[in-house]
From TrEMBL:
Its main location: nucleus. Keywords: DNA-binding, Metal-binding, Nucleus, Transcription, Transcription regulation, Zinc, Zinc-finger. Residues 589-663 form the HAT C-terminal dimerisation domain. Residues 27-54 form the BED-type domain. This is HAT C-terminal dimerisation domain-containing protein. The keyword Translocase does not apply. Residues 533-550 have a biased composition (Polar residues). InterPro entries: HATC_C_dom (IPR008906), RNaseH-like_sf (IPR012337), Znf_BED (IPR003656), ZnF_BED_domain_contain (IPR052035). Signal peptide: none annotated. One of its GO terms (molecular function) is zinc ion binding. The lineage of its organism: Eukaryota, Metazoa, Chordata, Craniata, Vertebrata. It is found in: Nucleus. Residues 274-308, 532-562 are annotated as: Disordered.
Length: 669
């Protein structure tokens, strides 16, 4: 058999720089594209050839597989003679197969698939050492050489994280409009007391909205607001976004304050563990305002702490609207002990029927969006946040007679007065649920969804909630209505007079000024706010500081020969001269148009040429999110299933997994 020379994927690239730790920069020989990666992790090079140069990739695979095909042909002859020998024995002994080397394209793709599984499902890296997992790999591809845990943890996953950082920095270099979000997760695990997540929301030049987690940093010891701000500034500087953020979404907090997500009292978040594993805090029936662990969104009411937080950020800070909305619901529920006890009884009935009633019967009640039933003894997927739990409760009340027939003990069934109280609760909180669904959308179902909801929804939602509460009567539970009203006035009502929210809502083409009860006053607020932001913004260079005198329209290019008057084209009608509109003129024309259901970013992409000044402000205002971030949901998920003290994952590995999971779409879609 003729010898086949060793083939390397790097043969198709020109290496221009090689740094420490095996990091290399190279250019594709076919198209010149710059590729950065580690020499030990070549998936970037293989992926580039496969996506951009299929012929070169096919040639690489053909040359790589030539020697292996000869060996496999010899193996087929041996298998004919040994057809009665057990398959497992042949494969476990090698069976004449040649194992892939680490740079083989098939080896690289399988290793990448394993890494994607670990990241997407937040699996501990130690899974690659499990005997059952290795036996599965041996059965599916006996030529694959399983990578050791140390390699995956110290080289493969960090290499993907490095790729994500490079891609993010390159994308942000040319961005003109961006906002930032801060998320803090306190977990009190050994030396690690929490994690800080910094997310960037930015618009590309073609009006496409993207979000990327810039960093997930471990926090050690007892940390303070100044420590968090210092880490935040360092992240911004390293990614080139210092001073460029239009707004920072960061709820005010004190260093010792954390708030758990809101759940209805008594309702389980997930089925009780059956593997002997302890139930983690927050997964039982506890909806008390326990502040031991969770995503730190603070909502500190101390004016001094809030002022220092805003001053430390250096730019305008805004509260996360979805968290404020959730906090209003929490405070409303806690204002009524009567509601808490009644909900606890309803939760006992719910937990009983989901464990005792066959799923085919429960599906008649709980089938629907977000309410699909799981297996036997498994609660619906809906029991994961307060809004979804309210939907379950409403279904429960609507089907109470049917559930009484198929269930057992009557003492668990809520009585008539309790049903009236629960119906009053669901009716009162229904608009809050609608607002939550608008803001959160399908993010709860897919934690990696790159879905952006801007703060333009906040002001109409607050107006709707105030109107609903003013028209609602709760004779059986007046304290609930009072608690909700007071919380809405304290936490949400200030946005009604905030020029930023007024601007964002008006620049949303589905609203404009249709919500306003005083259009003239709001129009004046708009003009002042738009003038401030249009003067401060620059469409030229994100890092360029422009002085007021430099805010002049661009100089027009050379005129076409057709624009010069001549007898030859005298029959062509003269075009009217166009004059640049002022900000007030653009706003007047914009508001005269009828509102449209067109998505805001699509609208401004189409209308930017007609309203350039308004579009420049809209581009910035619409980057501010009203919803929570992807990393916030990942923090919650990690808190339930990957807490480092359980031994399932190391803290140093957890931050890498969180970073890669939050940027999964950036890397692998």
């Amino acid at each position: 058999m003729a010898s086949v020379s060793k083939v390397s994927i790097l043969d198709y690239f020109n290496i221009v720089f090689e740094g420490e730790n095996g990091k290399i920069e190279s250019n594709c020989k076919a198209c010149g594209t710059k590729i950065q990666a580690k020499r030990s992790v070549t998936s970037n090079f293989v992926t580039h050839l496969k996506r951009k140069h299929q012929a070169m990739y096919d040639d690489f695979v053909k040359r790589k597989d030539l020697k292996r095909e000869v060996l496999e042909w010899e193996l087929e002859e041996e298998e004919v003679l040994e057809e009665w020998q057990p398959l497992r024995e042949r494969r476990s002994s090698g069976g004449g197969l040649t194992k892939f080397d680490r740079h083989d394209p098939r080896q690289v793709l399988i290793s990448e698939a394993i890494a994607k599984m670990i990241v997407r499902d937040l699996q501990p890296v130690s899974i690659v050492e499990n005997q059952g997992f290795r036996e599965l790999l041996q059965l599916l591809e006996p030529r694959y050489t399983p990578e050791p845990q140390h390699y995956v943890q110290s080289q493969l996953l960090p290499a993907y994280a490095y790729q994500a950082q490079i891609a993010t920095r390159q994308a942000l270099a040319s961005v003109h409009a961006l906002s930032l979000s801060l998320d803090l997760w306190r977990c009190f695990t050994g030396a690690t007391s929490g994690y800080l997540g910094v997310t960037c929301h930015f618009l590309t030049s073609d009006w496409q909205m993207h979000s990327a987690l810039l960093a997930c940093l471990p926090l050690t010891g007892r940390f303070s607001g100044n420590r968090v701000l210092s880490d935040f500034d360092e992240v911004c500087h390293s990614h080139g976004v210092s001073g460029r953020a239009f707004r920072v979404v960061a709820d005010p907090f004190l260093a010792t304050t954390t708030v758990k997500p809101c759940f209805l009292p008594g309702f389980l978040l997930s089925p009780a563990p059956t593997t002997g594993q302890d139930v983690v805090d927050g997964e039982e029936e506890d909806n008390s305002n326990n502040e031991e662990e969770g995503i730190q969104n603070g909502h500190a009411d101390g004016g001094e702490g809030k002022d220092s937080w805003e001053q430390g950020l250096g730019v305008g800070r805004v509260d996360c609207f979805s968290r404020s909305l959730e906090q209003c619901v929490r405070e409303g529920l806690h204002s009524s002990p009567q509601i808490t006890s009644t909900l606890a009884k309803a939760a006992c009935f719910y937990n009983y029927i989901t464990s005792a009633v066959p799923p085919e019967k429960l599906s008649q009640v709980f089938d629907g969006p977000g309410l699909s039933m799981g297996g036997p003894g498994t609660p619906p997927h809906a029991a994961r946040d307060w809004a979804a739990q309210l939907k379950v409760l409403r279904r429960l009340l609507d089907s109470m007679e049917f559930l009484e027939e198929v269930s057992g003990p009557e003492e668990l069934v809520p009585g008539v007065s309790e049903r009236v109280l629960l119906r009053e609760l669901t009716d009162t909180l229904e608009p809050f649920t609608e607002a939550w669904d608008m803001v959160q959308g399908d993010r709860q179902a897919d934690r990696m969804t790159d879905r952006h909801v801007s703060i333009s929804l906040a002001l109409p939602c607050v107006l709707g909630l105030r109107k609903h509460l003013s028209e609602t009567s709760t004779p059986h539970c007046p304290s609930l209505l009072l608690g909700l009203s007071q919380s809405v006035e304290r936490r949400l009502a200030p946005v009604l007079e905030d020029p930023l929210y007024i601007t964002a809502t008006t620049l949303d083409p589905q609203f404009k000024l249709t919500w306003s009860s005083n259009p003239d006053w709001h129009r004046q607020v708009l003009i002042e706010e738009l003038s401030k932001h249009s003067t401060a913004s620059s469409p030229i260079e994100p890092n360029t500081v422009l002085h007021p005198q430099s805010q002049t329209p661009p100089t027009p290019g050379p005129a076409s020969s057709l624009s010069r008057p001549c007898k030859l084209f005298s029959f062509i009608k003269q075009r009217p001269t166009t004059q640049a509109k002022s900000l007030e003129q653009e706003l007047a024309v914009y508001l005269r148009e009828e509102p449209t259901d067109e998505e805001a970013l699509h609208y401004w992409r189409r209308k930017a040429i007609d309203f350039p000044l308004l579009a420049n402000v809209a581009k910035r205002a619409l980057t501010i999110p009203a919803c929570g971030t992807v990393v916030e949901n990942i923090f919650t998920s990690a808190g339930r299933c990957l807490r480092p003290e359980t031994g399932r994952v190391l803290p140093k590995n957890l931050e890498t997994l969180i970073f890669l999971k939050a940027n999964y779409r950036l890397l692998w879609t």
